[in-house]
């Protein structure tokens, strides 16, 4: 049962909060006349000593507090920016917008094509992605999805560089027998250039591959290789250095 009694919408009601206001550090202040006033909040009835004696707002420590808050806010903005970058990477690949993918990278950014190699610079990255995944461009009546999820982003103390690891759930569906799934991981670094964040490096490691028709339990190595970037890339567009990841997903 509900722990509180309240009227249905549109009657206004605020439940008792169990946390303090994240900015003021005080207990929540309810609008005048709200029925939540006077109800237990789950907090101590005493106000923090720092709020009582004013030390939290001591002018001597205020510059340091502002500086620390600025760093925290910059790190939060960095986390959002890097997550946006890897999400955009997946979306642009969905749409075969390889030039737009390349624009996400820094001037000397590097992208690894699994099992093929590393390509440096926007022009090479765009051409490599086109050969690897979009030789015929965006196909009608086909769904290609690079779903990036569960990113773990670590921002350096100075807020100018970050690393990212995220899961990749990749689907190709046309309604035909060659539909497939891939599961992998994105690993990379991002740097702040001026007011913008860019990818310094990004690579994909595939963990398993399977056809939609037969499932991963009956997948074969030869079948999984059919989903990988073509080895012809090694001669058509030689990478700047060899890959560290395999073309073939190790499972099953």
Brief overview, please?
The protein is an alpha+beta fold and 252 residues long. 25% of the residues lie in helices and 28% in strands.
Mean pLDDT: 84
Quantity of strands, as a count: 7
Please indicate the percent range of residues in DSSP E strands (runs of 2 or more): 25-35%
User: Ends: how far apart?
Assistant: 47 Å
Radius of gyration: 26 Å
Series of H and E elements: HHHEEHEEEEHHE
List the helices and strands and how they pair.
Elements: H1 49-53, H2 62-94, H3 98-102, E1 105-113, E2 117-120, H4 122-133, E3 143-155, E4 161-173, E5 180-193, E6 196-211, H5 221-225, H6 233-236, E7 241-242
Parallel strand pairs: 1-6
Antiparallel strand pairs: 1-2, 2-7, 3-4, 4-5, 5-6
Any overview of this molecule?
The chain has helices at residues 49-53, 62-94, 98-102, 122-133, 221-225, 233-236; strands spanning 105-113, 117-120, 143-155, 161-173, 180-193, 196-211, 241-242. It is α+β, with helices and mostly antiparallel strands and 252 residues long. The chain has a 7-stranded mixed β-sheet with strand order 3-4-5-6-1-2-7, with helices on one face. The longest helix is centred in the first third of the chain and has 33 residues, at 62-94. The protein is extended. The two termini are 47 Å apart. The model has no long low-confidence stretch (mean pLDDT 84).
Which key phrases capture this entry?
252 residues; alpha+beta; seven-stranded mixed beta sheet; 25% helix
């Amino acid at each position: 049962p509900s722990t509180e009694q309240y009227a249905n919408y549109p009657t206004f009601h605020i439940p008792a909060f169990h946390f303090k206001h994240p900015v003021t550090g005080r207990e929540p202040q309810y609008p005048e006349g709200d029925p939540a006033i006077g109800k237990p909040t789950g907090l101590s009835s005493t106000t923090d000593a720092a709020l009582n004696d004013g030390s939290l707002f001591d002018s001597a420590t205020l510059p340091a507090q502002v500086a620390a808050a600025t760093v925290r806010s910059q790190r939060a903005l960095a986390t959002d920016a890097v997550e946006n970058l890897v999400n955009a990477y997946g979306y642009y690949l969905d749409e075969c917008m390889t030039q737009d993918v390349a624009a996400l990278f820094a001037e000397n950014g590097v992208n690894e094509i699994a099992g093929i190699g590393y390509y440096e610079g926007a022009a090479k990255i765009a051409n490599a992605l086109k050969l690897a995944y979009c030789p015929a461009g965006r196909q009608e009546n086909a769904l290609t999805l690079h779903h990036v999820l569960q990113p773990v982003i670590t921002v350096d103390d100075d807020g100018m560089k970050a690393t990212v690891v995220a899961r990749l759930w990749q689907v190709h569906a046309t309604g035909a027998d060659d539909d497939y799934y891939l599961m992998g991981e994105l690993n990379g670094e991002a740097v702040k250039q001026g007011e913008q964040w860019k990818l310094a490096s990004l690579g994909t490691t595939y963990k398993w591959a399977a056809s939609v028709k037969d499932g991963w339990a009956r997948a074969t190595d030869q079948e999984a290789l059919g989903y990988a970037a073509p080895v012809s890339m090694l001669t058509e567009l030689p990478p700047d250095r060899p890959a560290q990841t395999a073309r073939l997903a190790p499972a099953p």
